[in-house]
Design brief:
- The protein is built from two helices and three strands, in the order αββαβ.
- By secondary structure, it is α+β, with helices and mostly antiparallel strands.
- It has one domain.
- It has a three-stranded mixed β-sheet.
- Strand 2, helix 2 and strand 3 form a beta-alpha-beta unit.
Length: about 80
């Protein structure tokens, strides 16, 4: 899924996924939707790849297993001044 948006995916794709799985974030529940708001990654190119991955996941409309909750993934904006 990263290959389309990240040219170095064969060599660095696993590193990005590892960083994603260790990325802090917030969960927000709104009705039957769970929003996952992730922090940006250390490099802007990683964040862009992560953003593209979130869009692809959201297009599939994933659900939390064994529930009716839909999952949506987003990247938090950078604070002003950074």
């Amino acid at each position: 899924m990263l290959g389309v948006h990240y040219s170095n995916s064969p060599s660095e794709g696993r590193s990005i996924i590892r960083a994603l799985l260790n990325t802090p974030g917030d969960l927000r529940v709104s009705g039957d939707v769970i929003e996952v708001h992730l922090e940006q990654l250390s490099a802007p190119r990683y964040t862009l790849a992560l953003h593209a991955l979130c869009q692809q996941l959201n297009a599939r409309r994933p659900h939390l297993p064994e529930t009716d909750y839909e999952l949506r993934f987003q990247i938090k904006p950078r604070p002003i001044g950074e």
